[in-house]
Specification:
Length: about 725
């Protein structure tokens, strides 16, 4: 009897192990070709058709010069992938055996030994197919035919009895919307096996799901004396959100992990004091590594569902497809504690009410009612219903923003995307007035660093009117806006490299102005998330970090502006209000030192602003009337291990006449020691490839040396000869 019990327990244990067997990788050598052609080429899986074409030298690099325009034909073709594999004896012995496709982009007919086993139509779904009885001993062929997404889109749009609002027909496909082009991204509508394929066997229900964890973060969205609050509580305490908007870090997504983009970008975000990233709704539900890194670094995630800037279909087939997508993604992602909010879409509610779609597309009253009913079905019924079932503890926000930035109530409740600066060409100073409860989008463009520009151009391209440079600026009047904002603040200058440098200073100043306004208005305002953190290709854009991972001036300014020890300055009648906060460090003292300077960079001796000493962990304010000759104020926080500056101009940069500095650089270990004879603004250190300074584009003052650590490998005997350094005054002297 005992022996029988032991045997039964052993069998049950084996069954339990089988039920928990992790998926087995599907290994094989893949080939691809254009459907209908005879010749096959080597393919990489996971991958995309564009990267496979590039690897086989069948297309030029779409990121180089104006090659994007030369590869547009790829999206109109059908592409076929195949592999031949021999299943192992272990697989063939399984009673149940599934092929699991984690990601097929997008319209894919899958054939096993010439038998159709799957007809996929959603890039964001996982597909499982029972294949045990379809396998044979010896070689088997798996073949996948990808049909053109744009042809599908156009066909569905042609057959529809109503034109769906949007700049093209992308809304018909459950596919990464940014592939169709955005105002920072190329049009590269790709296809392919973009995620792994693997085997799954054992019992029907797997028990390998991760344990769901929580960071105890809550959204507070309650009526108050002003409108409605919008802030997050973490462990019961209000937390000010210092964030950024995240877009896909590659146009060809499978290449991102191979290039190490996720690891660097998330680590850089942590180093820049960011505590929240918003996964924008026109991209993808991110790779597991993104959420794993955010979990690791303590970065909260605002997670959009993948809908952006268009009205979407509401027919039964589309809704069922979306329902399966939402269920899969919520179940996949809810285990990550970093996700603190689900958001239905990007800017669709705002667009419907403020972008003039009804007039643009000639909608009649019944058309509008029908479209809005479809919108509500998806974002106010289906998605929140699924969340209530699968992840009821996290908050849901139907659309970001909740109200368009042109309406006064947008700044009294919910979240706001303020684009008066840039899109509306309002002055940067408007950031001080247009302060919302939670500022989830705003931004300013700048060129990427010259090292990056040189990677996608030749010298003859370095003109904003060249075909190549216009290809790498996707905003319809981007260069005009950059010039407009530069001309408002800076003197006339010449040279493309100076344009790159000044554009970055202008961008950094604009973002600093916005963040200062947001932080100085706490607790009315409890969040700021600038647009955008990263790029998907080399481009002139709003990013802080470019496609190659190089940091703009804005990155370093964000790092300073998001520091827990911070100081802000703002106008108050005819006076200046200095305020800020420091983090508590037992027994430590902090000194706040405000110094007024005239237009020539000379400190003004007689000043109403005096140093203030305080305990670390204090909040502080100071109000004073500036000297009539004051052109800018420099407020410094000093303490053990602390030295941060806030530059506050009272006049435009063009009215400054700063002398050209003589900056001396020495090397001490892995750090640079810099001194100057006169105050220098926007000091940029140029370093060889692979070496990054801990700080850059900073202010350097006489009798106040700066020590900057270098990250990366370098030759101490050569580094000083390889360094370049210049400041704002060098451009004009």
């Amino acid at each position: 009897m005992k022996r029988s019990l032991y045997l039964l327990c052993f069998i049950l244990a084996i069954d339990s192990i089988a039920a928990q067997t992790p998926p087995i990788a599907f290994n094989g050598s893949w080939q691809f070709h254009r459907a209908g052609e005879e010749k096959w080429y080597k393919a990489e899986v996971p991958g995309t058709v564009h990267t496979d074409l590039l690897a086989n030298e069948l297309i030029p690099d779409p990121f180089y010069r104006d090659n994007e325009t030369k590869v547009q034909w790829v999206e109109s073709a059908d592409w076929e992938y195949k592999t031949v594999f021999t299943p192992s004896a272990v697989l063939l012995k399984q009673g149940k055996l599934k092929l699991v496709f984690d990601g097929l982009d997008t319209y894919a007919k899958v054939y096993l030994n010439n038998e159709l086993i799957l007809d996929a139509d959603n890039m964001f779904r996982q597909w499982k197919v029972e294949v045990r009885k379809k396998l044979k001993t010896g070689p088997n062929e798996l073949r996948i035919l990808f049909s053109s997404a744009t042809r599908h889109d156009d066909s569905l749009a042609f057959r529809s009895d109503i034109k769906l609002a949007g700049e093209n027909n992308r809304m018909y496909s459950r596919k990464a919307q940014y592939q169709y082009g955005w105002d920072w991204g190329p049009r590269l509508v790709t296809c392919g096996i973009w995620k792994p394929i693997h085997w799954e066997f054992g019992n029907e229900k797997q028990t390998l799901s991760k344990t769901q964890r929580s960071w105890n973060v809550k959204l507070v969205n309650q009526p108050d004396s002003i409108g409605r609050s919008f802030y997050f509580l973490k462990d019961g305490k209000p937390v000010f959100i210092k964030g950024a908007n995240w877009i896909p870090c590659e146009s060809f997504i499978p290449r991102a992990k191979k290039l190490g983009l996720y690891t660097k970008l998330i680590r850089d975000a942590k180093d820049a004091n960011i505590n929240m990233l918003r996964v924008w709704g026109g991209g993808i539900y991110e790779d597991d590594i993104f959420y794993d890194l955010c979990d690791q670094y303590g970065i909260m995630v605002w997670q959009d569902f993948m809908f952006a800037g268009a009205m979407y279909p509401s027919d039964e087939k589309f809704i069922k497809n979306v329902e399966a997508e939402i269920r899969f993604q919520v179940d996949r992602l809810k285990v990550h504690p970093c996700i603190v909010l689900w958001c239905g879409n990007n800017e669709i509610d705002e667009a419907w009410h403020n972008w003039g779609w009804q007039q643009q597309y000639g909608y009649k009253a019944n058309d509008s009612a029908r479209l809005w009913e479809g919108y509500q079905q998806l974002f106010h019924k289906l998605i929140p219903g699924i969340l209530k079932e699968l992840d009821p503890s996290r908050p849901y926000w139907p659309s970001s923003p909740s109200i368009g930035w042109g309406r006064p109530e947008a700044y009294k409740q919910g979240d706001v995307h303020y684009w008066g600066v840039w899109w509306g060409r309002e002055p940067v100073e408007k950031y001080k007035e247009k302060v919302g409860r939670f500022n989830s989008e705003y931004g300013m463009q700048a060129f990427p660093p010259m090292l990056s520009v040189n990677q996608f151009t030749v010298p003859g391209d370095l003109d904003t009117n060249s075909t190549v440079m216009r290809t790498h600026e996707k905003h319809p009047y981007g260069y005009g806006n950059i010039k407009y904002y530069i001309d408002r603040k800076f003197k006339r200058f010449y040279g493309f490299e100076n344009l790159v440098y000044i554009s970055q200073l202008m961008q950094a100043d604009a973002i600093k102005t916005a963040i200062d306004a947001h932080r100085s208005n706490m607790p009315y305002t409890m969040g700021t998330m600038f647009w955008q953190w990263n790029d998907c290709w080399p481009v002139v854009s709003w990013s802080a970090v470019d496609y190659y991972g190089r940091k703009k001036a804005m990155y370093y300014q964000v790092k300073r502006s998001y520091d827990d020890n911070y100081v802000t300055v703002k106008n108050k009648n005819d006076s200046l209000l200095i305020s800020g906060s420091t983090i508590p460090v037992a027994g430590k003292k902090i000194t706040m030192v405000p110094v007024e300077y005239d237009q020539f960079g000379n400190s003004i001796g007689r000043s109403a602003a005096q140093p203030m000493e305080m305990e670390a962990g204090s909040q502080f304010t100071m109000t004073f009337k500036p000297n009539a000759q004051t052109a800018f104020l420099l407020v410094t926080l000093k303490g053990t291990g602390l030295h941060t500056d806030n530059f506050y101009p009272l006049v435009p940069f063009k009215e400054l006449n700063l002398p050209k500095p003589h900056i001396n650089i020495q090397l001490f270990g892995n750090s640079l020691y810099l001194t100057t004879d006169v105050i220098a603004y926007g000091v940029e250190i140029g370093l060889p490839e692979g070496v990054e300074p801990e700080d850059n584009f900073f202010i350097l003052k006489p009798a106040d040396p700066k020590l900057i650590r270098l990250n990366g490998k370098f030759d101490p005997a050569l580094i000083l000869k390889q360094i370049t350094v210049h400041s704002l005054a060098d451009v004009f002297n």
